[in-house]
Amino acid sequence: MIWNITGRKQKVKDYRLHKEHMLDESSEIYQKITAAIKENRDFIANLGHSTFLISYKGKRVLTDPFLSPHIFGIKRQKPALRPDLVPQVDLIVISHAHYDHLDMRTLRRLNRESVVIIPENTKPVLGRIHFKEIMELKHFETTQKEGIQITSLPVKHNKGRSILFPNTEVASYLITIEDKTFYFGGDTAYFEGFKEYGKKFKINIAFLPIGGYEPTLILHKVHMNPHEAVNAFLDLNADYIVPIHYGTFHTIPKFVQVEAPLKHFKEEISRRNINNKAIIIEPNNIFVLTQ
Fold first, then answer.
1. What are the pLDDT digits (tens) for 62-83?
2. What is the pTM of this model?
3. Of 24, 154, 206, 280, which is most buried, counting CB atoms within 10 Å of its CB?
4. Phi and psi angles of residue 273, each rounded to the nearest 5 degrees, phi first
5. 246 with 262: CB under 8 angstroms?
6. Percent residues over pLDDT 70 in the chain
7. What does 204-266 look like in DSSP terms, one character per residue?
8. What residue ranges do the domains of the chain occupy?
């Protein structure tokens, strides 16, 4: 079932025009997520682009939910799990208001009994949509929600969504569940702030973007390439890196093959002899943290 603006269930819209780009209950990713939850396993699921489902110690967090079949007419390279099939989560964290990270079509179809964490000046984008709570978190501010501690940290990326919402902020997040801290980098270029975060915080798993950097002349100030993502990981002094923001979309489709972000990422971690520090979860796959 999907959830309407009041939080009540309504009939599922089945995306008839885009069925080849959507996954249902018979999909492997849905079956794996369902089994992991039933068996009380901790896991990370890559639902495409920057949309990750983190399940740890009975708590669940969904990042930058974008589960629509296309964006501005650009169809997904990998199909999306139907949003109403995403399990109930405690927190939804949104790094910024760009359309490929804050997708209203997806939010309207998720279960509404979740707390949504967003950057400053972003609440107007959500309009009258109903969730358990919607909270704007300022940079360096920490809050405790649903037994999860979350801290907002600045990154280097262009803010704003449109001419109607030009001042929406951009954030990354430290997400602490009991003994483990996840860093969700959202969308960012490389910047010196990673070194400061590495000195100040103990990070177990860092989710860092590796795609969307071509054409470099235009995008190098807002997106990292794989080499820079590995540099950021080392600066953060995290235990493991999970590459995100690749293999699903690209603003300019012809550059997808030119970038080959995952290929270059694998080459980079091999060159630096840190293969054992990378948790690579390709879109529509799951990585079990505890057996």
1. 999 999 887 766 778 889 999 9
2. 0.91
3. 206
4. 60, 45
5. yes
6. 89
7. SEEEEE-----SHHHHTTT---HHHHHHHHHHHT-SEEEEES-SS--SSTTHHHHH-HHHHHH
8. 2-288
